[in-house]
# Entry
Amino acid sequence: MSVLRLARTILRIGRMAAPATDAPSETAVGDQVLTGSVQVRHVDAGSCNGCEIEIGAVFGPVYDAERYGARLVASPRHADALLVTGVVTHNMLQPLLRTVDATPKPRVVIAVGDCARDCGVFKGGYGVAGAVSDVTDVDIEVPGCPPAPDDIVAALRRVTRR
Amino acid sequence: MSASPAVAPDLTSTAWGLLAVVLQCCVLAAVSPILIGVMRQVRYRMEGRIGPGIWQPTRDLLKLARKEPLVAPGVRLQGVMPIAMTGTSLLLVALLPLMSTVTIPLVPDDLFVVVGVLLLGTVAIALLGLDSGTAFGGMGSSRHMTIAALVEPTVLVAVYALSIPVGSSALSAIVDARIAEPVSVVSPVSLLALVALIIVVVAETGRLPVDNPSTHLELTMVHEAMILEASGRDLGWVEFSSWLRLAGLLGLVANLALPWGVAQSMSIGGLAVAIVAIVVKVMLAGAGVAAVEVFLAKVRLFKVPELLAASFVMAFLAVTASYLVV
# Structure
């Protein structure tokens, strides 16, 4: 895309973010330190990638979770919150536990989607080690298969308190 | 090759110089997180987002300062290097003629000292990357040193071109001469050297198209790869020092391009004007860089030397031209 076309597109589209809604009424989760600034690391523990598409939308221009102070980062060392999606498979059990250990405290673990909450349609599968809450402490659960981006944003806002 | 000759090395001027340096460090330290906030916000708006506002990096820093760092066993430098990096960034900001051209006689703001301090910060972060012992850390360090090896000569040659007409390699003397003779800013020498300098500042501070500061792909990282293992308070220092470095270097380029507003003699009023001027200049420069970045993609690592070679050629032409065109 040429520079001129891109400039015209930027001017034509302007703001594509959906209007901000009121701060969530549910109680805040996590330490007070995380108010207004939460770095998020996403861990796929064995997901079908349905939740990943929704998480992509959450941090995209329309839902724009970054306006509430949540930002995706590339390393668990930088993170305050982990977004865990999918059932925990045997192969991802160790990496998940190590990722949780590599996240400095105070940290928050968010289980996103029905699979992460209670194994969903994969319950009893031979490769399944369990739900996320079976292997580590979970602070927030987001139901849905896949959960709507608005629900994930609401969960993140309970941590950022914005 | 010495500090500005206008200053007599007496006690009052030393006190004024110290005051200016301390003030300069404080102003830049306060402004640098806001600068990053402005740059990100410009990008968010152009992407059609609302964005978290210009205070988000400040909030991030304050949060990181209150988080305990996690240190892997066997890692020794992780607590030291972030502090060393912040020290070199503060020293860099103290040496650059950002707010006043009055210098402390004992502390040279010489071009070669500034480049040395710049390299010191580069070595500190490269050691931090190596010390983490991960594949990505070492890879980032090696890339960073490769880029630094190509950047430092260009910085030297570009500012050397500017120093030839002035007859001094002190940065404050160069800025002084530009205020005295504003036409020299648009001379061919100055324009070539400024373009070369802008390219190397972009490379040195890890901005697009040399390095993508918001990337999540470890294989394409340069700066981010070295700090992947830093956490908590340590990460806060690392981020702060690189932001401060960006603010200082943008301020230097802005002062060379638009030297007005810099205090040439010591007075409270002059300093106040200088504070406003440098904040406005750094913010505008940052917003400009961020707006241009929206139109750029990161170039392949093997193309980076071509870009930097082009900037070196421009700096070299500037030096040549400074001997031919007076």
